[in-house]
Amino acid sequence: METLLRDREEQRAILSVQPTALATQRLYRLWGWTHVGRKGPLAGVTPPCWDIYVCERGVAQQ
Fold it and tell me: What pTM was computed for the model?
């Protein structure tokens, strides 16, 4: 994950993960991601709900 985000300039990164992927969610939290909510239900999407995680990447440039 760090390799994917290393050269990004955004202040934060956001990802979504299936609510049933508990081992994946534990790994994201270990890496410093914070669970901030759940999106859904979404019509026509499988699964209909997704857990949303945010990782702060640094101070915003002014």
Answer: 0.85
